[in-house]
Amino acid sequence: MAFRPPTPASRDWHQSLHFLSLKLISFNMDYFWALKELEQAEQAQDLEAQCQGDVLSELKKREKSRPLHEYSILNLMTYFLYSPLWLAGPMTTFNSFMSHLHDRPQQAMSAWQLLLYALRLALCLGLLEVLLCCTPVWAIGRSSTYLQLHQRADLLVAYAMLLLIVMWLKFLCIWRFARLWALCDGVDVPENMRRCVCNNYSLSGFWRGWHSSFNLWLVRYLYIPLGGRRWLWANVWVVFGFVALWHDLEVKLFAWGFLNAAFMVLEHLASTAWRSKAAALPAEASRWLRAAAGALYVYVLFFVNLIGYALGVTGTLGLLHLAFGDAPSTALPILMCTGLLALSMVQVMLELRESGFSRDGVGKVT
């Protein structure tokens, strides 16, 4: 059973419309909420005062309404066509963008910090170049070289993992470059890829760190209006359905969205049950149970994202067939080894988080 991973293609012009649609929704919703505040008897001068004084946090910049005269067609077009964020984001709300445009430039990073940020980006670009030269994952897929590995389940699993890592590193370089450009221009936007793709053991944590700016947009304009955490079991289906449709009209993306929503609900139910039972367990047993559950979700993250971002449904099933179908005797040892590795990885992740060394891109322990 052969499969062919999707081949890289040139960027279609209509892909920029995806981000324009998010910006249009942001502008209209922010404008609507600003009008609602006025209807609730808030004075126009209070809106002006919200944007002055001390430096506002990113959360307040997203939520604080702007003076009504700033919701103009000129500012909308500026927000639409802002060069650093035009192609791929990161996404920022209209309110936050206006706060930098009209109040004060970004103060999140000094010139020295921007230089260090640029050096880190250069190192990431160099690492991506080395990886693609030494292990050209896209060329391996296009040339069907992976078919020669049908007797080596370990190498097929390693290839699939490397494919996801290269995908993560590629997006990291794109988004970090765009954010660096915006920061140099005085506009602070949310950081994407706050954590390494291998440093996740839950879906909620993964999505807070992967396309973080899009996640913040979804929370503000879709998740909270739908009821937030109280109705999580229902609104995650709408959220991931929207995300799948926003990316493209493809079967693999809807399958990816369905699986994400299903496992998110399971994760929420398990977390709720765990909070009520964890106190009765010994600390050591609690730690091992958390690690085991996290290791299981490492597999979930691995295969769900293979379906959505790399190989699709047919490709992922084909990979499993190539890895284990022709040589089922190798399946158990491979699963045992990868399971032990995942368990060890999650133990390290838990230790880093509990000790305060695991930080996201904005300096918060997560």
Enumerate the spans where pLDDT stays under 50 for 5 or more consecutive residues.
1-10, 42-55, 361-366
Strand content: under 5%
- Helix content range: 55-70%
Shape: globular
| Mean residue pLDDT | 80
Q: Report, as a whole number of angstroms, the end-to-end distance.
A: 42 Å
Using only CA atoms, what is the Rg?
Answer: 22 Å
How many structural domains does the protein architecture include?
Answer: 1
Give the structural class.
mainly alpha
**Secondary structure: number of strands:** 0
Order of helices and strands: HHHHHHHHHHHHHHH
Q: Main sheet? A: none
Q: Helix tally?
A: 15
Brief characterization of the structure:
The protein is mainly α and 366 residues long. Helix content is 67%, strand content 0%.
Mind explaining what this structure looks like?
The protein has 366 residues and is mainly α. The protein has one domain (1-366). The model is unreliable at 1-10, 42-55 and 361-366 (pLDDT under 50). The radius of gyration is 22 Å and the shape is globular. The two termini are 42 Å apart. It has helices at residues 16-39, 44-50, 58-63, 73-81, 94-103, 111-134, 137-142, 153-184, 203-209, 212-223, 232-247, 251-277, 283-310, 312-325, 331-355.
